[in-house]
Amino acid sequence: MPRLALYALIVCVLSVAAAVVSFVQGSWLGIVWVLLAGLSSNMTWYYVKRGRSGRSVTR
Question: Which of 16, 25, 40, 45 is 20 to 30 Å apart from 8, CA to CA?
Fold first, then answer.
C-alpha cells in the first residue's frame, strides 16, 4: 500500500471516530467529519489504484 494511501486511510478512520463522538455529544459538527471521511476514503482508493497501476506498468 502506498504511503499516501495509508495516510489517507488513517485520516478516514480518525474522522469517522470524530463524527461518532460529535453525534453522540449532540453536535451537528459531525456532518463536517462525515464529509471529511468521504473525501479521505476517495483519496485512499485513488492512491491505492494509482499505486497498483504504476506497479503493473513497470513490471
Answer: 25
pLDDT at 16: 97
Quick check: 14 and 40 in contact, CB under 8 A?
no
> Quick one: cell of 13?
478512520
d(CA 28, CA 45): 27
Burial class (CB within 10 angstroms; exposed 0-12, middle 13-18, buried 19+) of 32: middle
Helix (H) or strand (E) holding 22: helix 3-24
Task: Answer whether 9's CB lies under 8 Å from 58's CB.
Answer: no
